[in-house]
Amino acid sequence: MKKIILTISILTGIAGTAVSQERPDPAVPQGENLQVPEGWEFRLDSPDENISLGADPDKADIYFVNMTPGWHVTTGPRAIFYHPANLENGNYSIHTALHLFDPKGRNREGYGLFFGGQDLQGADVEYLYFLIRNTGDFLVKARMGEETETIQGWTASELINRYDENTESSVLNTLGVDVTDGIMSFFINGTKVSALEVGNWGTDGIFGLRVNHNVNLHVEDLGTGLE
Question: For residues 97 and 223, what is the distance between their CA atoms, to the nearest angstrom?
Fold first, then answer.
């Protein structure tokens, strides 16, 4: 694995505090297990200073912790989560493995990967995202500042494993994105479901997770390559 060393702020927001971090490894907690992972950052779709992120599921609006292997996140509002060392340019591929817990009837809330992230804490934020939802559909979309644009609308796929009344605990789906020679290819559980031209979309930048409203996920893996 290529090592990228960056100096970044700790997610928990201690002013003036910085740590040196490598690309995160799902098998090695960033800090303590069951605590907010050090070095990670997040951004809400709609900034709100009253929204808290923390390791206490009873008090935090967004619960986000190391839970080896990987991380656990339960959202209130929609947000992206990322480590600045997860940076890819040119031709590359990324993947994640996501366990969805009981959506409690909120089957239309999407979750998945984002990539090509630029200015992620600024007014000119840009990224592309690839989501699935428990209705059995996937989506490819772009964010540019406050605007979004649909690249491929919600599309049904029988490849998506869905949480239902027979699910004992959670349901696992793997997602992958490959960017090669001007083509973006999208994979669900190891099978390509779409291939789109990059065109004018920016694919260089940070990758991470995008999770919509009130979604309970365990992120078993997040990294480069296709699984």
Answer: 10
